[in-house]
What does this fold into?
Amino acid sequence: MKIMKAILGKKTSQTQVINEKGMRVPVTKLTTASCILVNVKWPQVDGYAAIQLGFGITKKIVKSVAGQYIKAGKKTPLLHLKEFRFEANDKTIQKIDEEKKTGIQLGETKLFIGDEVKPAVLFKIGDLVDVSATAKGKGFQGVVRRHKFSGGPRTHGQSDRERAPGSIGSGTTPGRVFKGRRMAGRMGGGRKTVKNLHVVQVADESMTVSGLIPGATGALVEVRSLS
It folds into this structure.
């Protein structure tokens, strides 16, 4: 039976470890301290089913968002607020109310609004996860850097065309540049997802996944799993 799991964290460092087969593999370490379950949404009230997680600490925040943290019992506002949707008819996720507390039950794990979400509770070593983050922004780049073009010849009167894209279309027919043509432009800075990474280590406030993930050190990272 598959259970939807999710957690927020920040990218701490990239390093390498030796696995059980004696092979050296790259890994990325994540810190998940202060990831809080802020709210749970259900179709009967909100029109869809989702869990709402908060992460990080900040001082400035709009009042509408601050009210959600107060309801969750957190007076200190959190920097990030993310939702992870799930199917409303998913029997692995149940709404629970115990001792005037509302929360969800993921399999055998119970999480109440205002509780800290810990990786050791949700994940185990060997789980496959999808990791999303905002990639580093590279600014305006040419086609050689952005699309790995080889450039033009350096001889026969082409001394100034080494990093030029070359022809981008004909003049008469169709008389325009097709949409999607690979050209120079803004590079990076978008949301990227790396799928099927293995969980290498888990603890109460941190976790380590195999491979390299997008984003700069300290960037917000979303970890999801359906296992």
